[in-house]
Amino acid sequence: MPRSKKGKRGSGKPGIKNGVKGESGASDDELTSDILSHYSSASETTSVLEEATGGEQVDEQTAQEETEDKLKQCIDNLMDKSAKTRLAALESLRQAFSSRVLYEFLTERRLTISDCLERSLKKGSGEEQAAAATVFALLCIQLGVGDEAEEGFKMLRPILTAILMDNSASIAARQSCARALGMCCYVSAAEDGEDLIKSLALLENIFMSSYPNREGTLPAPKPGSPGLHSAALQAWSLLVTLCPASKLTKLLDLHLPKLQACLESSDVNYRIAVGETIALLVELGRDIDEEFEVENSESLCECLKSLATDGNKHRAKNDRRKQRSIFREVLHYIENEDFTEEKIKFGVESVYIDSWMRRRIYDAFKEILESGVRHHLQFNPLLRDIFGLGPPLILDATTKGTKISRFEKHLFNSAAFKARTKQRNKVRDKRADVM
Questions:
Q1: pLDDT tens for residues 6-50?
Q2: Which secondary structure element, helix H or strand E, spans residue 353, and what is its range?
Q3: How would residue 180 be classed by pLDDT, with cut points 50, 70 and 90?
């Protein structure tokens, strides 16, 4: 669905001073420590209203300028000759982009940052490539309300693709590139059916290598491959939520039978990713056709029951508990079309995760934003648009306690999300020839 292009939003105008390129060594460590301590000390759900608690109120403008000066220094450090300095700068930017909304600041510097990230992706170590891909995904989330994210995605997509498809690249870098490719395509290229279909195909090429061979036997996993397959499958399933009915029907026919076989994988995290993807695809199939039925549903349910009650002592206790919990939910949905709702609170608002599609989208943002996801739900126009929350709330002492009931909020969020999905699919169907 084409997202509305909104006016620029940010947490303040950039400072006037230009950043000064730092030197490697102790000074860089001190800078990183300074920025990390700044963000770790800030509440992830900082309210628009800063209530007085008896002490002096923080001068927001001064704090904003200081923060932006430090960020400029980090951006300069991305060009440093020292790999240690570049990694420290990437980590600082990751923390900053996760915990604050910086649209205006980043809009003016997006080309510089993109150039630096491209350099790290092309010439950096596996660790630096992984960090750069994550920062780029965060940059797209920050710029997602405008056209800038799409421009950046078109610029860096070739190098993300090259690393993802390079069997000699580090697994960590390939995983990070898979997640970035999925997220950046979802955020910035949702209006381009060609970009969507290309990204789906690239991610399929990765996780389909885990599919059974002609004899029905699963291939022996190579070291690190289950993690890579999981990342690619989850990124792919995020993009599947953008597909029209015409494309979804083909995907269901192709992938559901193969994914059922992958429930026998020896890796618990990959099994869980497969189970959640199956539930998502079945949900999407039922949205298309109320009479949609899974092929070999009895066999699927028997497998799901086995995984939901797995007591294999050879598996770690936490792995068994997590697997049983997830597969109980998947089985319950497949058999009864019932989803266990989850409520995510942030500030005075809430988002209700009441479908597998909504969960996949929320989990994708949470994986990249980590603890900052609630702050972005509260203030980032992109996430608020995706989850049907409307413009960020501006609260004062008289309105803070005035809010609609939980039931009203639930109905509003669900209706807005479903309306967005229907409209998005309607637009996609017009491009069926591209799909």
A1: 333 333 333 333 333 333 344 445 554 444 444 433 333 333 333
A2: strand 349-353
A3: very high
Distance CA(380)–CA(386), nearest Å, equals: 10
Cβ count within 10 A of residue 222:
11
User: Which pair of tokens denotes residue 253?
Assistant: 């026919």
The whole-number average pLDDT for the span 366-374 is 97
Q: Above 60 in pLDDT, residue 326?
A: yes
Interhelix angle 268-288/317-336, rounded to 10 degrees, is 10
DSSP codes, 197-248: HHHHHHHHHHHGGGS--TTSPPPPPPTTHHHHHHHHHHHHHHHHTT--HHHH
What H or E segment, with its residue span, contains residue 432?
Answer: none
Predicted TM-score (pTM) of the model is: 0.80
Q: From the centroid of its chain, how far is CA 3?
A: 17
Residue 264: pLDDT over 90: yes
Q: Which residues contact 320 (CB under 8 A, 6 or more apart)?
A: 310, 311, 312
> Residue with structure tokens 């290309």?
198
DSSP conformation letters of 55-109: SPPP-HHHHHHHHHHHHHHHHHHTT-S-HHHHHHHHHHHHHHHHHS--HHHHHTT
Distance CA 41, CA 38 (A): 5
Buried/exposed 278-298: b ≥16 CB within 10 Å, e otherwise = bbbbbbbbebeeeeeebeeee
Q: Cα(297)–Cα(282) distance, rounded to whole angstroms?
A: 11
